[in-house]
Amino acid sequence: MEKYRKKLVSLIKKQIDGDIDLAVPPDSTFGDYALACFPFAKQLKKDPVGIANDLKEKIKAPSFVEKIETKGPYLNFFLDKSVLAKEIIDSVLKEKEKYGQQSLGSEKVMIEFSQANTHKAFHIGHVRGTSLGESLARILSFVGKDVLRVNYQGDTGMHVAKWIWCYQKYHAKEKPKKDEAWIASIYVDAIKRLAENEELQKEVDEINRLLDSGEDKKLLSLWKETRQDSLDAFENIYQELNTSFDKYFFESKVEKRGKEISLELVKKKIAEISEGATIIDMKAHNLGVWVLLRSDGTVLYSAKDVALAEQKFEKYKVDTSIYVVGKEQEHHFSQLFKTLELMKFKQAKKCRYVPVSLVKLPWGKMSSRTGDNILFSTFKEELVDYAAEEIKKRGEIDEKELKRRSDAIAIASLKYSMLRQDPNKVIVFDKTEAMRFEGETGPYLLYSYARARSILRKAGKFSHSISAPSEKEVALIKTLDAFSERVSKAASDLDPSAIANYSFRLAQQFNEFYGACKVIGSEEQDFRLTLVEAFCIVLKNSLHLLGIETIEKM
Ligand code: ARG
Q1: Could you tell me the distance, in angstroms and rounded to a whole number, from the CA of residue 220 to the centre of ligand 1?
Q2: What's the pLDDT band for 18 if we cut at 50, 70, 90?
Q3: Residue from 122, 127, 132, 152 whose mutation best tests the ligand 1 pocket (most atoms within 8 A of CB)
Q4: pLDDT by residue (tens digit) across 169-182?
Q5: What is the pLDDT confidence band of residue 363, given thresholds at 50, 70 and 90?
Q6: What is the DSSP letter of 423?
């Protein structure tokens, strides 16, 4: 439709000089596009109503325009809906999974997301960041970027020392498992014991020192083994979440370079030594003080991030570097980006931080022993069970298929409820709300897709055809057309919610159309089936960009 708008603008420009703001009126009785004539009154020395009437006389309606009308000072353009239908539906059917693809400039974009730490839980907050990163990676590829998806896991440091200490001291009889829940439970136990007796921290500190120096080979091999168990457990989760990574960075791998870089920064007078610690004074930039190395020389999270960024720029040659990370780290990233700028990395200005806000649970509604830090696995199980109950209500189904569908519904509900919101806002995840088969939910979208697919299955073979569309059909067709604009908005805002909200609107319009128009057995059967098919393609594309896979039956 944008193409028609542009053509109309150029026709109007032949009559009037200046900016032509051809808007979409809120109500379609005022046409598909309307031009307000007030802005030209001064320049033409004429009243707006007169200008509108003049323009109506002078502009020759092109073939895609059904009629041009005036309403007071407005000039309203009505497009020929059959032309519109043909144009839009044809391109959907032709481009299929590529429909909506565009080029917003080619460049190498690295997107870092998920970043769960080994030896700890993968909780629902991680699900939000992982879903967001996955979706952004898909969206950015869809608009022509060369995307590298990367992870950066915290596999060293105090949390690891606590875990190893607790395991050795209290759980050594248990064989380490590649099981997220078990791994997390050891960590939770460590925290509990340390809270009960502060003296114990000394033992943890000693383990931390030994791990850092690498002198205790047995300890090192226990670290290696359990680190891998954690990573393997995460890998299963990534599969369930339809996520994958091109590259895994680890904190342990940038420690050494982090130390070196800190010393280099002192030489370059970007950093300084203060009370033994290596710091960057950023007060002049209103960013406080950033500590790189402790006074005992051990390396901090900050310095490791500088080393990581250097690798991203120099080894991977990225143009734009995106970090999808918890909102509580906002300040850290402002300090990091400023440091990269001081270091004169040309990409420093192209670092983008996407804050991921918290996911909370309505108190008392979910079972969780660790408060808001509920495990992904526990949580998912609850959703899958819930979905399975819903599916079984609808009729007999074999176990394997039941599992497939309930898994898909659970993940769709989880992802959709997170992606439909601004990443910057706290989410209160209400299971019953997110799992509803009606309303703005993942299950509703999957259901709408499956419903459309079942119409097509029932219909069997048909030939594509286009006829003059009715009002509901026009609304649906126009929404199909709006997809690519939503994709570019999501890409430039780095926020998939534009696409999430769009998916819902599209599904709603489909359901309205289906409620109003008989498809199978109607005179317009072929046209309507063609439209149903186009709808399926666009909804599927849109959900795909959210990282949500469709199912054929609910
Ligand atoms: N693993 C870190 C954490 O759990 C997040 C890493 C974010 N990425 C980064 N480049 N600092 O807090």
Answers
A1: 23
A2: confident
A3: 152
A4: 999 999 999 999 99
A5: low
A6: T
Asked whether the beta carbons of 79 and 66 are under 8 A apart, the reply is yes
**Residue 216 exposed, middle or buried by CB count within 10 Å (0-12, 13-18, 19+):** middle
Domains of the chain in sequence order = 2-79 (3.30.1360.70), 113-249+309-365 (3.40.50.620), 376-545 (1.10.730.10)
Q: Which residues line ligand 1 (CB under 6 A)?
A: 112, 115, 117, 152, 154, 305, 308, 323, 325
Q: How far is CA 184 from CA 119, 125, 166, 180, 244, in A?
A: 7, 15, 12, 6, 22
Q: Which residue has the tokens 């917003």?
A: 104
Please give the distance of CA 455 from its chain centroid, rounded to a whole number.
Answer: 30
pLDDT tens digits along 183-234: 999 999 999 999 999 999 999 999 999 998 889 999 999 999 999 999 999 9
∠ Cα 477 482 485 (to 5°): 165
Average pLDDT on 45-68 reads: 95
If you measure from the C-alpha of residue 280 to the centroid of ligand 1, how many angstroms do you get, rounded to a whole number? 20
